[in-house]
Amino acid sequence: MCLAPVHLTLLKIIRTSEMEITSIKSFLDYYERIRERTNRLIKVIPPEHFDFAYMPGKFTIADQVRHIAAIERYMFAENVAGRKSSYPGCGKELADGYENVLNFFNDRHRESVEIIGNLSHEDLNKKCTTPGNTEITTWKWLRAMVEHEIHHRAELYLYANLLKIKTPPMFGLTSEEVQERSMKDLN
């Protein structure tokens, strides 16, 4: 296959471009929208299912929620603030029971946002150290935090589907609604 010079240039741009975070305010605005989607999902899961795990020894729904909160606050936020990770795990000792788990989730998020909000724009380009003792640019570690939450939200969607819980569409429409509207537009 022969690619025209313009296609080669586009491929180079795609391969070398990154989703760079250049502003704390715009990052936090974006991250709050990510969290809103996660919260919408968590709110449809009934309390009686919070101890569900798809197999013994795997995270329960409550473990997933505590994990998102604890890793955000005690690893990512600590690291970008120049401190070592103090991740305590995601067990019931952190918060047990539906309301306590939700409060833990929301409280740790508020603390994380406060820590991240104190970073300067210059801090985004400084290095921080991960628990694996790897140095990484702070904005890249923040991007990894978002990816981490999305990963665990996807797992929560799967858990909810296994339990036959109707989940909210992520962007307002279900796949079926998008398909129906797309087909209507073609006719």
Looking at the overall shape, the CATH architecture is: Up-down Bundle
Number of domains: 1
User: Could you state the CATH homologous superfamily?
Assistant: dinb family like domain
Radius of gyration: 20 Å
- Average pLDDT reading: 89
Strand numbers in spatial order across the main sheet: 1-2
- How many helices does DSSP assign? 6
Q: Within the CATH hierarchy, at the fold level, what is the topology?
A: Four Helix Bundle (Hemerythrin (Met), subunit A)
Which overall shape is indicated by the principal axes computed on the Cα atoms? globular
Helix fraction by DSSP (H/I, runs of at least 4): 55-70%
From the structure provided, what is the oligomeric state, counting identical versus distinct chains?
single chain
Order of helices and strands: HHHHEEHH
- Terminal CA distance reads 34 Å
Could you list the spans in which at least 5 consecutive residues all have pLDDT below 50? 1-17
The structural class is mainly alpha
The CATH class turns out to be Mainly Alpha
- Largest β-sheet summary: 2 strands, antiparallel
Q: Strand tally, please?
A: 2
